[in-house]
Amino acid sequence: MTKPRRPVSKIRHCGAQHHFVGDCRFHLSTLVNGYVVSTVGEWQPDGPGTDYVTVGVQLYETMVFRGDGSEECGFGWSGPELAVRRYVTAVEANAGHFAMVDKWNAPIEGDDQ
Predict the structure, then answer these.
(1) Tens digit of pLDDT for each residue in 15-46?
(2) Is residue 6 part of a domain?
């Protein structure tokens, strides 16, 4: 028997950075079921051409927040992060971002995000 899924009106992929104030070279963001999944990395606080600095404890991280109700790419978020994952490489970060999108679009039984 298939578990029920959350109803999805849209999964909206946007390129903007959504959860870190530093200018990161790597950034993905997706709005799914009213949640913002944001992944950032490759932060160069001293400008382009300088060494990357960790975001949290790794070079890349994904965070999930409740969205602000907007379905547009300029969406915001509210409250504390609901989930966090960190990665060492851009390949891991990219895969991790979309795994988190899948998770927040997962079956609702138990709703144990």
Answers:
(1) 777 777 678 888 898 888 888 899 999 888 88
(2) no
CA–CA distance, 88 with 92 (Å, rounded to integer): 7
Residue 96 has pLDDT above 90, yes or no: yes
Q: Which residues form the domain of 91?
A: 11-103
* Total residue length of the chain: 113
Instruction: Specify if 110 maps to a domain.
Output: no
- Within 8 A by CB and 6+ apart from 58, the residues are 41, 86, 87, 88
**What is the number of structural domains in the chain?**
1
Rounded Cα gap, residues 74 and 92, in angstroms: 26
**Cα separation values, 19 from 40, 64, 84, 109, Å:** 8, 9, 11, 28
112 lies in a domain?
no
